[in-house]
Specification:
Distance between the termini: 38 Å
Number of strands: 10
Number of helices: 6
Helix content: 25-40%
Order of helices and strands: EHEEHHEEHEEEHHEE
Largest sheet: 10 strands, antiparallel
Length: 238
Amino acid sequence: MPIPQTVTTMEACMTLRAGNEADFWATQERMGPVVASQPGFLAVIGGPIARSPWMYFSGKWETPDLMDAWYRSPDHGPVMKGAYDTWFDAFYIRKWRRPAEGEELTGPLFLETSLVPADALLHERVDALVTTLTAALPGYGTMPYETLPGTFEAQPFQFIGPVEEFPQQAPVRYQLNTHWATPAQLEKWLAGPEMAELATLGTVTNEVGVQIHHEPGERRALNADGSARGWLREGATL
């Protein structure tokens, strides 16, 4: 069955290999305009994750096919090789697409919650928010937050920010990522008091994603059902 050609998000994280950070960031700066010029490019998003060893990075494209075209681009090949050979100790990638009009949703689902406050949140406020979310989200049935296959964050979500992004959506923005097994659980969370409390900190918007699966062998380091790929360098730890 053809994949609906809707807006597509790459949910990904990495850890940098010690000693190679400067080269990685220089390459990222050089490649930024190249990526932004690709057909279907919408955004790149990244930032630190609270209480996590991972760093978030994400790309958004108009369709799955256009995201795949960038994957196959000769400009992208050397960057991917650098990630495996030099820059990363670990990484993982999942892909999600916006539901098609009238599509009946089934899990797993990816919820991106954007929070735009008037000013950057103090560290103490972020820490308190993470504590509150850690206690509240399991009561709504959120899925444990898987990173590498079979590896999970200490809390069932990722709180990222302030994010760096292009194009920039707001002077300061944070992002809360969660995974959901059913639409009913997700909707209950969206209607809950914790989401209302989050909105007191700033403008909140939500975007739901349906998981994209690759065919076996279609990508390097792909898991058995094609839902994710990831890799941990030998000898590295998280």
